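Student: I would love a firmer grasp of how sequence relates to backbone shape in proteins. Thank you; the sequence and its tokens follow:
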Amino acid sequence: MTMMLPLLVFVCGSAIVAAAAYAFLPNRAVAIDRRLEELSLGREREEKPRFQAIIGALKRLGDRAPKSPKELGSLRLRLVQAGFRRDEALTLFFGIRVLFALCLFVLLSSPVLMKPNLLIALGGLGLGYILPGMVLARMAKRRAHLIRLSLADMLDLLVVSVEAGLGLDQALTRVGHELAFAYPALAEELNLINLELRAGKPRAEALRNLADRTGVDDLSSLVTMLIQTDKFGTSVAQSLRVYSETLRTKRRQRAEEAAAKTGVKMVFPLVLCIFPAVWVVTIGPAAIRFVQVLFPMAQGK
């Protein structure tokens, strides 16, 4: 027993020290989050001045860029539909357009890629001026497509929320929070509706602004239905359920239409890419054999 007592004391002391160390040890997830926050803050401190300088240069360039009054309204709407709502977005877009056009002009007018040609450089200048608008339209179309795909899930959650007893405003807020992870674009638009309603705008105006900001036809139809339902006092849940079924029917019809167009769209890749290779593999050996047999006969004659 006298020999076992020091061993027991040592084991108990080691266990107490290990338990204390484990208790004071920070959680791994907390430590990882803290380290990521430190890294992100350090990166922001390093990159913020550089990006601020670039943005400032683009703003100055965009302020001096020529602007068409007829184009400003449609261009601002296109920027909003693409997800750029800040006040300086229009000025930054003009700066990017002018900078890209000048870069293409300088690149094509210098002997870096090819022999300098003034006509090609002017063509590059025009292309550089048009290309940012095409990219912006593509971004707006992509965002509208993502919102269109998320409408079915939004309607299902909206029907469940309204039938559970929530009002339409509270249901839109709840659905916006639920869809923030899966569909951030639509969730952002629903949160903007909530902010406009809190600011005092009428519900009909806030819903119309939602349709204008997204540019999605299905969402515009939903907004019209909700405005009419609110005006005539009909059941919101029943109207949403009927519209949800109609929307799913339209989605199925669009899928069937896309499937029917697949055969026509595959003709051009088949003819231009696959058919020449098949022709070489199948007709090539016969053509080589034909030449080997025909040419000696022609030379013999």
